[in-house]
Design a protein that fits this description.
The chain has 75 residues and is mainly alpha-helical. The protein has one domain. The chain is built from three helices and no strands. The radius of gyration is 17 Å and the shape is elongated.
């Protein structure tokens, strides 16, 4: 589909959407890390520490998806 989302085009609407998603994701990641750090617990020494770090994977997944070119070419 020429000019569609999967064609790798970087139109102004797509760039604006990527920038908005990146901003929201970065802000959410920073707020979550600040919340973890401000709790006053030693995260890596608690038994639940690894479980509390699991939501970071979702933020990192979004960063990786945004860093890829989004071409969607399979073949």
């Amino acid at each position: 589909m020429p000019g569609g989302w999967s064609s790798g085009s970087t139109g102004p609407a797509r760039r604006t959407l990527r920038r908005a998603v990146l901003t929201v994701n970065a802000t959410g990641f920073a707020v979550y890390l600040f919340w973890l750090a401000s709790r006053g617990r030693r995260l890596f020494f608690d038994p639940e520490g690894a479980i509390q770090l699991l939501p970071c994977l979702a933020f990192l997944f979004v960063f990786v998806c945004l860093a890829s070119d989004g071409g969607g070419g399979g073949g």
